[in-house]
Each structure stands twice: as C-alpha cells, then as structure tokens.
From TrEMBL:
Highest taxon in the source lineage: Bacteria
Entry protein name: N-acetylmuramoyl-L-alanine amidase
Reaction(s) the record says it catalyses: Hydrolyzes the link between N-acetylmuramoyl residues and L-amino acid residues in certain cell-wall glycopeptides
Keywords: Cell wall biogenesis/degradation, Hydrolase
CDD domains to which the protein is assigned, alphabetical: PGRP
Enzyme Commission identifier(s): 3.5.1.28
Enzyme class of the recorded protein, top EC level: hydrolase
Species of origin: Leptothrix discophora
Matching Pfam families: Amidase_2
SMART domains on file: Ami_2
Matching SUPFAM superfamilies: N-acetylmuramoyl-L-alanine amidase-like (SSF55846)
InterPro entries noted in UniProt: Amidase/PGRP_sf, Amidase_domain, NAMLAA_amidase_2
Length: 302
C-alpha cells in the first residue's frame, strides 16, 4: 500500500533520487501523465536528473514497466515536465501540477512487418496497440503499457488526488495538443481519471453484441485493424461515443478494453441470462459506468 509522508512517496518498490532540475514551492492542482519515449526506466531517471545546456527536464515520479517507482522531487516542489502548456485558462502547468513519467517507448514506426521505436528497438507484436490518437492522425502503432504499470498508475492517481485535492488527471496531450501525444491511446487515461476523481453523475448506455462474433476495431471503419479477438455474442458493452454507424465502446468488466464496433450488431436488450444479475453486480456495474461517463463529460468540456 502506497502512502505519502512529508511529500514523499512511501511503499514497496519506491525509491528516491533527487533531481537538480526543480523550481520553487508547488501547490498542485492537477496530475499530468506522460510517457518517457525512452529505452528504459533507468535511462529516464538519469536523463531527468541531468542538467543540460540545451534545456533541463524533470518530473516528480518515474513509473517502470515492472511497477517500480522512483521519486525525483517532493510533491510540493515544482518540476519541469509540462513545458509550454495551458489548461482551463491557466498557462504554464509546471507551476500547478504533479508530473508522472511512465517508462514507455511511445509512438512506433512500421518497418517491414515490425514496429520499431524511434531509438531503434523492435517492439514485440504482443506489446503493440494499433490506434488513432484522439487529437487526430492516422491509425498507427503505440507501445502498450503493462498491466502492473496501469494498476500502479491508477493507485498513484487515487492517492495523489485524495492527498492534494487535485482537480483533474490530465495527459500531456491535453495541455499541449499538437505538440505532445503522450501518454497516447495505449494508456487508459479516462479509466484512471474516473477511478481517481470518483465522480458519479449518470450511467453510460449499455449495449449487447448480437452477432456470433464481432470485431472491435481501432477506428470507426471496417478497414481499421482489430484491437483484440472478436467479441462473443452477448458481450456487454458501455457506449463511450455514439456515432451513426460506428460507436466507441468499452467492454464491461475489469478489462478496460476499448475500441469501435458497428452499430448494426448491437442491441439495447440484455440476454435473458443477464437480466437476473445479482443486485450487487448491477450496483458495481452502474458505479463504474457512472465514473466513465463523468470522465467522458470532462473530456468534452475541454
């Protein structure tokens, strides 16, 4: 269990290495998530703790793919992770946010049959997610985050939001659109935000798959690559974005699997076996869905 003592993170798998790249006192309002676009957690820590003639960068935390966390500065001190940025009428988010860098290669290039990082590392297909960025651009490969990394990021977001009464959990892509694309579509930012902020307004619409098998794709088109094995008949979905022919959905349950499906193969009537779901299960589903719609509303208000 993670905790914060005197603005430092304490818990299993946590360590501290001070960066010289810091500013003055910080009274944080936001949490900003990043990917390192680097080769390893260790290289990211070294870079963020080095002073460079071309300009210095830092963050409060670096989160490894194995769940390890290195803190580089106390949470009440400014670090330089946001750069030129703006949000909700505020410019320069360094002075108002806590920054988390996650070890991840970021956007990938297709070279032959493989996906390769900008620094030349071939990423296994099992670690590649094909998707279009929500700020625009084509479907391309992105380095997937590990399950333990996502779970740890969610835990960190919940702890930091509750401790410092933060207003929102953002991506670098939110505060510097067009300039930055991290943490990218491979990171479930909406889900992490929903867990951390804990808003409950109303439930997202539910749909169920009517086809024997239904592809869930990276974009609203039959030519877009599938993001997972085909969904089985009766699979429950939450509608995140409703279109005339295609809708963006999340598979109900603990998977956080998102993608696009064709509306022709959906129904608003649950299978008979699902209609008698226990009250506790229904309550949990509604609570999760409520958090999802709140996150979606927050995104649309930007």
């Amino acid at each position: 269990m993670l905790r914060i003592e005197n603005h430092r993170l304490v818990g299993e798998g946590c360590s501290f290495k001070a960066t010289p790249n810091i500013g003055g006192p910080l009274n944080p309002r936001y949490l900003v998530m990043h990917y390192t676009a680097g080769s390893s957690m260790e290289s990211a820590v070294t870079s963020l703790c080095t002073q460079k003639p071309s300009g210095n960068a830092s963050a409060h935390l670096v989160l490894g793919r194995d769940g390890r966390i290195v803190q580089l500065a106390p949470f009440n001190v400014v670090t330089w992770h946001a750069g030129v940025s703006a949000w909700n009428g505020l410019t320069g988010l360094n002075s108002a946010s806590i920054g988390i860098e996650m070890d991840n290669a970021g956007v990938l290039d297709k070279v032959g049959d493989h996906h390769v990082s900008w620094f030349g590392l071939t990423i296994p297909d099992s670690e590649v997610r094909l998707a279009a960025h929500r700020n625009g651009g084509p479907v391309r490969g992105w380095h997937a985050y590990t399950p333990v990394q996502i779970a740890r990021a969610t835990e960190l977001a919940e702890l930091l939001v509750s401790t410092y009464h933060l207003e929102d959990v953002l991506g670098h892509e939110d505060i510097a659109p067009g300039r930055k694309s991290d943490p990218g579509p491979a990171f479930p930012l909406a889900s992490v935000r929903a867990h951390a902020i804990g808003r409950e307004d109303d439930a997202l619409p539910h749909r169920w798959v009517t086809a024997t098998s239904l592809n869930i794709r990276s974009g609203p088109d039959a030519s877009a690559p599938a993001v997972a094995p085909a969904l089985k008949q009766g699979t429950e979905l939450l509608l995140l974005e409703i279109g005339s022919r295609w809708s963006r959905v999340e598979v109900a349950g603990p998977t956080d699997l998102e993608g696009w499906v064709n509306n022709s193969f959906l129904t608003d009537q649950p299978p008979a076996r699902a209609r008698s779901a226990p009250p506790v299960a229904k309550k949990a589903a509604v609570k999760k869905a409520a958090a999802k719609v709140a996150a979606k509303k927050a995104t649309r208000s930007r």
